[in-house]
Amino acid sequence: MAKKTNFKVNGKNYYRVTKTIGHKSNGTPIRKTFYGSGINEANQKADEYMNNIKNGLINNYDNVILSDLMYSWLFDFLYNSSKIKASTFDRYEGVYRNYIKDSEISGLKIIQINNLKLQKYYNNLSDKNYSYSQLKTLNKILKTFFNWCIDNNYLLKNPCLKINLKGNKNNIINSSDKKIEIFSESEIKIIKNKIINNKYELLILLAFATGLRQGELLALDWENIDLLNETLCVKKSVKEVYVYNEKMERHIESVFQSPKSVNSIRTVPIPSYIVPKLNAIPNKVGLLFNDDGKPIKAKRIFDYWKSLLNDCNIPYKKFHSIRHTYASILLKNGVDIETVAELMGHSAISITQIYLHSSNDQKKLATQKINYLFN
After folding, report:
1. For a FRET experiment, which of 57, 66, 118, 200 has its CA 20 to 30 Å from that of 354?
2. Which of 235, 260, 323, 324 is flagged as catalytic?
3. How many Cβ atoms are within 10 Å of 309's Cβ, its own excluded?
């Protein structure tokens, strides 16, 4: 019985199989064709080649350029991977799109990239007033990418090592001087009175009462709330990220993911003031805060919050400042830092210590304690 073929060249019949082995930076698939005397042989050659790629045994990388390979790393290896959060992928893709895709180093062959070329590129970005934090994020993600390149035999060593990150010096100074914004007790009272019977009243009150991050609040499900014991459990967070269709066109969707860190998975007491408001809600099913059953969009929260503070004649502070306020009030009222760190879901107490700031009046009163030395 003759073998099935689908391709003929120089009078000989073959079976041809085409596989996608990666993607270029513009989304175009990189395809390779395999030939055999029949379908089984062609598929065997294709499968062997694809397995070799997975095992890092294909070494014809001389002409692979940075932009194409990083794109393939993102969308062929990381996209929809269980190893990283959707928000992490979103950050990686943003760095690729803003710093690599159409940059002066995008067309460099991967084997040509070294420490000096990257240093010059970073210096050029610094000269264009890119901040130190921007360069630090870029270098961190490139370092992760180049480690993958090493694991897959594209490179021998990571060119991101021993890089000098300059960045905009004014930005570094401004960042070090940046203070944590919190609401005063009088401002909290004004806000509390202004939001009575508003659709976002419970959301804002619960934010002040628990210190949860906005994404954690919007992901709260009634299954996470124990009204009998007056506690809630943070198990997930919601984040708006870009997702891609088959044509690699992107659009924003709300996705549920694990919280910021392992410590962020926590149980937080609900102040007794809030419990009756939760009990009054008739249908205790699904998301606590929702828009037709779906998570409320962050932009709606932002627009309302900005308008609310304006109506209250309170200088604008981010919604996240509610969380800062929660921690600061607890510490001010004598709650130990270990407990505050646990309630906040911080991965280390050193993070919580940023809220141990004293007002100038408190500092003045403290220094008066030394007066006895001079009497």
Report:
1. 200
2. 323
3. 20
Q: Does residue 98 lie in a domain region?
A: yes
Contact assessment for residue 27 and residue 18, using Cβ atoms and an 8 Å cutoff: no
Assess contact for 281 and 230: CB atoms under 8 A: no
214 has a pLDDT exceeding 90: yes
Range of the domain at 297: 185-362
250 annotated active-site: no
Confidence of residue 170 (pLDDT cuts 50, 70, 90): low
172 and 204 share one domain: no
Cα–Cα distance for residue pair 23/244, rounded to 1 Å: 14
324 classed as catalytic: no
DSSP string for residues in 58-98: ----TT-BHHHHHHHIIIIIITT-TTS-HHHHHHHHHHIII
Task: Tell me if 327 sits within 8 A of 340, measured CB to CB.
Answer: yes
0.90 surpassed by pTM: no
Compute the distance between CA of residue 189 and CA of residue 166 in angstroms, rounded to an integer. 44
Catalytic residue among 109, 320, 363, 364: 320
User: What tokens does 1 get?
Assistant: 């019985």
Catalytic residue status for 317: no
**Nearest to 154, CA basis, from 24, 89, 65, 47:** 65
* Average per-residue pLDDT for the chain: 82
**Given 83, 179, 247, 369, the catalytic residue:** 247
pLDDT of residue 169 exceeding 60:
no
Percent of the chain with pLDDT over 90: 34
Q: Is 367 within a domain?
A: no
Amino acid 227: pLDDT: 92
Which pLDDT value is given to residue 11? Answer: 66
According to DSSP, the residues that pair with 17 across neighbouring strands are 34
162, 115 in Cβ contact below 8 A? yes
More confident residue, 356 or 212: 212
Is there a single domain that holds both residue 149 and residue 196? no
346 catalytic per annotation: yes
Looking from the CA of 169 toward its CB, the CA atoms found within 13 Å total 0
Q: What is the mean pLDDT of residues 231-251?
A: 80
**Per the domain annotation, does 324 fall within a domain?**
yes
